[in-house]
Amino acid sequence: MGHRDRPRGPVSYTHLRAHETVLDLVCRLLLEKKKLYFFIYSLLLISFVLFFYIFSILIVFFLFQTASACIRYSRMTNFHTWLAKTAALLQGVFLLLTFFMGKPFLPLFYTAVTITLLELAAEIILVYVLPVWEANIKGLYWVLKRKKPAGTK
């Protein structure tokens, strides 16, 4: 009775590795590489979807702010708030760092996105608070501060 005639049962992974040929090794390494590529592809797909949603939200806020201003003032806003200047600065720093370093610094990206979203929300509120078009406003706080009702300090 030869080794081919023996009944086959489960064998351990160590046993399989001990009798591995060069072709088996190449096959196993290619499968492990394929698993790694699938994992990396999944992470890239998730990050792409996340970036798509973030940019979609920002675009919707921007279009709503622009449409509101065009309807109310018949022109785009030029509020130039401190928040808008901060958002522009963070976006510029992020883009320059990404260009020179080769990969994005994600905490700075998410900070820039958050500040930009806050800035767009503040400008939407400013469009509805200010009855006439104004330029170079410091921010929502200063507009609300100067619009205090009569009889308050």
Write a compact overview of the structure shown.
With 153 residues, the protein is mainly alpha-helical. Helices cover 71% and strands 0% of the residues.
Helix content: over 70%
Strand content: under 5%
Q: Radius of gyration, Cα only, in angstroms?
A: 30 Å
Instruction: Return residue spans where pLDDT drops below 50 for at least 5 consecutive residues.
Output: none
Series of secondary-structure elements, N-terminal to C-terminal: HHHHH
**What kind of sheet is the major sheet?**
none
How does this model look, in words?
The chain has 153 residues and is an all-alpha fold. It has a domain at 54-146. 71% of the residues lie in helices and 0% in strands. It has helices at 13-18, 22-73, 82-101, 106-129, 140-146. It is rod-shaped, with a radius of gyration of 30 Å.
